[in-house]
Specification:
Order of helices and strands: HHHHHH
Number of strands: 0
Shape: globular
Number of helices: 6
Strand content: under 5%
CATH class: Mainly Alpha
Largest sheet: none
Helix content: over 70%
Radius of gyration: 14 Å
CATH topology: AhpD-like
CATH superfamily: AhpD-like
Distance between the termini: 16 Å
Length: 117
């Protein structure tokens, strides 16, 4: 069931590898910006990743959903917190956001299984 998300994450990592090889300056600049924006500041990293997940759901970005579910879990976030983010994303994004909760489930299945095993 999580094989779709596993393929999504594989595809994303392959694309990032290509961009790192072919446009290293751009990727280094973007990576620095992203790291600065998502590092601990007034908000801790887990909170920022939860916000990122909510925005990924409303933006309907499958790749972003996978990335932020993984990062939320690595930052100490819980399944329940992720479901709470899903609830808010549905409020803000309506029916279209609701359909992308399927991608959140795929990511949870994949990354919770990896964490357990």
């Amino acid at each position: 069931m999580s094989s779709d998300m596993n393929q999504t994450m594989h595809d994303f990592k392959a694309a990032m590898g290509m961009m790192n090889r072919e446009a290293p300056d751009t990727m280094q600049a973007f990576g620095g910006f992203m790291n600065a924006a998502l590092s601990k500041g007034a908000l801790d990293e887990k909170t920022k990743e939860l916000i990122g997940l909510g925005m990924a759901i409303t933006a309907r970005c499958v790749y972003c959903i996978g990335i932020h579910v993984e990062k939320v879990l690595k930052a100490g976030g819980t399944h329940a917190e992720i479901i709470g983010v899903c609830e808010v994303a549905i409020v803000m994004g309506g029916g279209p956001a609701l359909t992308y909760i399927a991608e959140v489930k795929k990511a949870l299945d994949l990354f919770e299984q990896q964490k357990a095993g």
